[in-house]
Structures are given as structure tokens and as C-alpha cells.
Amino acid sequence: MEKLYIIKIGGNIIDNPVELDSFLRQFSAIDGYKILIHGGGKLTTEIAEKAGIKQTLIDGRRITDAETLKIAVMVYAGWINKSITAKLQALNCNAIGLSGADANMITAEKCKHPSIDFGFVGDILPDGIRSKSIIQLLESDFILVFCAVTHNGKGQLLNTNADTMASALAVALSNDFEVSLVFCFEKNGVLADANDDSSLIPELSVSDYEALKQKGIVTKGMIPKLDNAFNARKLNVQNVMIGNASQLAQIISKQKDAATYILN
Amino acid sequence: MEKLYIIKIGGNIIDNPVELDSFLRQFSAIDGYKILIHGGGKLTTEIAEKAGIKQTLIDGRRITDAETLKIAVMVYAGWINKSITAKLQALNCNAIGLSGADANMITAEKCKHPSIDFGFVGDILPDGIRSKSIIQLLESDFILVFCAVTHNGKGQLLNTNADTMASALAVALSNDFEVSLVFCFEKNGVLADANDDSSLIPELSVSDYEALKQKGIVTKGMIPKLDNAFNARKLNVQNVMIGNASQLAQIISKQKDAATYILN
User: Which of A109, A131, B71, B258 has a 20 to 30 Å separation from A164 between CA atoms?
Assistant: First the structure.
């Protein structure tokens, strides 16, 4: 099978132009098929707060009323997605910026939560990834850049978690490619001590993960990310790593201690 | 040659949800290859003015400083482009929303004006349309939806006139397709009396156009639109029409008096 790299970058990288440029340089140098998924950064919150729209995040998910959705789509699918696309083009990387609505590639439904109304937040449907269109674009030598916006197929755009999107894409495409799914953020991986960057845990099994959660070493923000990572690995994604965006080249070349590798 | 429809809609249609829905229904019903190019509507000006960024338009071109560019890209490539894409998908029209930066499809350079600094406004380069990528996507059965944002190939996004973009796309693709270029707006076409919708001029030659300009019948806002239309016709675009967005089906089926047809 051909290799496919699915790389997710978080908001902290997007908010730092120097780190973003370094990351995009490393991303553009990867040989072969690749997909980038990006989160949002601080801009959505900034614009919403300037407009007097109070923002609430619960477990990393933004409560998304109609006005917040508009701002989120503007920021994610507009400014961030097209800025990244233009920067990648300048690096001779033939990027095409997309949301899940484009070519109907990712469909979702409004998040159903027993007690919280998250508004226009979308959960990707079990059959929500249209692999055929994605493969068609990859085989046309396009590099796909997804923002974390999906739709319900009935005209409604939905704000969707970028980690979940990366995981769902990796799972759907692991039948057709040998997928490496890399979650990039501002830390070196899963750390035994959150304040010590040198305490990297190079490999993490489900039982290790459970133990770290019980000991309170894995913090709140890391739990949804790691849940997505373990879920992808469980559903046969061939390689799943969590590491520092600045070390992407080392992670891709599987250098020792370059990231945390997620085990079965 | 296969037929290709290139349809441009203006801001007044985008700002009216009922008219936009009716237009999109008619657009989605067109058989065969098609491209939609959309302008911006009032949202960019609204957001910029709320943020205290004064907006200046000269001959229909927006003076675009860095902050205005950010807002324009958010609105055009983000909210409007993805809303239209999601609506078309709901109509079973396999739309994919794009800017000129995506797949490097449209490159431009910063507008050079002898006396006015337009900022981040882009003029499409003579060889700025990458037909090969556009044809590849059309032949993959995608419907392309372009917002009026381009890039310079060096990482800089640029705000570009949507009429000019439609005209440039039509010219570049008229070698490979029999192109019908339709400029849709809120009037029935070119009118002999701007206040009388029944005074449609069904056919317009260059000499008629010159005469209408001299008599002051063709108004300021119409001149750049008609210049783009005549330029496309002169450069061998097979069919060029200007008409009412609500009459798209009649225009496409070449009904009598459905629009103004641009003659050589």
C-alpha cells in the first residue's frame, strides 16, 4: 500500500507565525500523499469577544450559537485555511484548502449531549467520510488542507473538533493507504511530568494510558486528544504519533524519542 | 466541444437569502460542467466598520489594507463560499469551494495604479489561470465555486474583482470548452432606462455600448462589468450574457429577452 501522512496541527502553532512557517516547511518536504488538518487558534475567540458574543468551552468544545458559527467558519475556512494554502503553494506544495462541505467529503450531525446544548457543533457520522472523493484528489496530486468545519448534507455548516476529524479521516483511509497519523502540538508528546519537556514517554499502551489518567498525570486537555489517538490505532490506523510540531521531520522519519508512539 | 457554464453572482443576490436560494436551485439544475464565481455582499463592510476600519471603494475596487484583507478573506473564502457550497450540496450539486490560491488555480499581482495605492488588491496575471487543474476538477465531476480571492504565488493572498475573475476564467477555458459566461445581478440586463426594468436591451454591440456610455445611459457601476463582458467576447468566449439572477434558467436556455447578449 502507498503511504499517506495525515498531520494535525493545533491552535498554538497557528498563532505563532515563526513556528507555523517552520512546520509548513517540514510538512511540504514530506514525500508522497499527505493531508493537513488544522485547528483554530485564538482568532475566533478574539473576534467573538470584540463583537460581544460570550464564548464558552466545555471539554475543549466550543458552544456554537449561530453568530459564533459564522465567526468560526470565517476564521477556520477563510483566513486560516487560505493563509496556510497560500504559504504551502509558495513552498511548491500543491495545496487545496477544504472544509467537510466541499465535495461533500465529511458529513456530521448536530452533537447530541444529554445535558448540554452545544449548538452548531458537529459529530462526524460513522459513514461520514467520502473516501472516494478524497482519494480522487490525492491521486490528482493535490495536498489536502482541511479546516475543522463540516456540514450535515442539508445545507447546515457545523463546527467540528479537529483532532476527531484527523482521527476519522485516518480510520476511513487506512483501508486504502498505510496511514501515519500525527497529532502535532507545542509539547514533545505525552510527558511523565507536564512541566518537564525531557520527560517524554516514547511509547504508550492503552494500559499505560489508563494508569496515567488514574494518577492524574495526563491532564484534561490531553484526554480527548489521546482518546482520538487510541481510537484510531484500535481501528487499524497503522501508525499514530503525538509530538512537537517543530520536530515533524524527525517524527516522520521515525527518529528515536521524537514523539510518543501510540501502541495497540 | 463540451459546454461549460461560468456564472457570476453579485453581492446584492448574496445578501438576499430568498433570491440566493432561488438562484442556487436554478444553478444546480444546469446540466453539465459549471463554475460559479461569487462576490462579497455587505458583510465585509459591516464587519470592517464595526471594527473601526474605514472602508473606501474607488470604481468598485476596495482599498484593501492588511486588516481589511483579513476580513475580506474571512467573509468571501470562509462564510459566503462555504455557505454556498453547503447549500449546493443539499441540492445534490457536488460543489467544491475554492479561492485562487487553492491548487494554485489563479495567480495575481498587486494592482499597479499610477496614483492610488489599492493595497492588497490583485490583478490576475495574463498567464494566471491554471486551466489544467481546473479541467481536472471539472472532469472529476466537481462543480467549482470560486470566491474573489487570489494569491501571488509567494504566500500573499489578494482581494480580486469577481467580474474580472469570471471573465479571465472564461477566456482561459474557451479553448477547451464552448463557454457561456453569465453575469447575474439584480437587474434584467443592460437597460435603456436604469429605472425601467422593461427597457432591456436584448443585444449589445461594442458600438452600441460606446454610444450608451457617451449618452450617460450606462452608469458608473455598469462600466467595469460591461468592460469585462466585452473583453471576454473579444477574446473568443463563445457566449456572454448579462441578466437577472432570478432568470438564470431562462438565460441558460437562451429564451428571448431573458438577458442582454453581448455581441462581437
Answer: B71
Chain B residues within an 8 Å CB radius of A25: none
With 0.90 as the threshold, say if the pTM is over it: yes
E strand spans, chain B? 3-9, 33-38, 57-58, 61-62, 95-98, 106-110, 122-129, 143-147, 149-151, 157-159, 178-185, 203-204, 239-244, 259-262
pLDDT (tens digit, 9 = 90+) per residue, B21-59?
A: 999 999 999 999 999 999 887 899 999 988 889 888 887
Minimal C-alpha gap between A41 and chain B (Å): 14
Residue B221, pLDDT score: 80
Q: Do A82 and B77 touch (CB under 8 A)?
A: yes
CA distance A248 to B65: 34
Q: Strand B203-204 vs strand A61-62: parallel, antiparallel, or unpaired?
A: unpaired
In this predicted complex, what is the ipTM? Answer: 0.96
Q: Which of A14, A96, A156 to mutate to test the interface with B (most CBs of B within 10 A)?
A: A96
Determine the distance in angstroms separating the CA of A47 from the nearest CA of chain B, rounded to an integer. Answer: 9
Tell me the fold of B3-262: Carbamate kinase (3.40.1160)
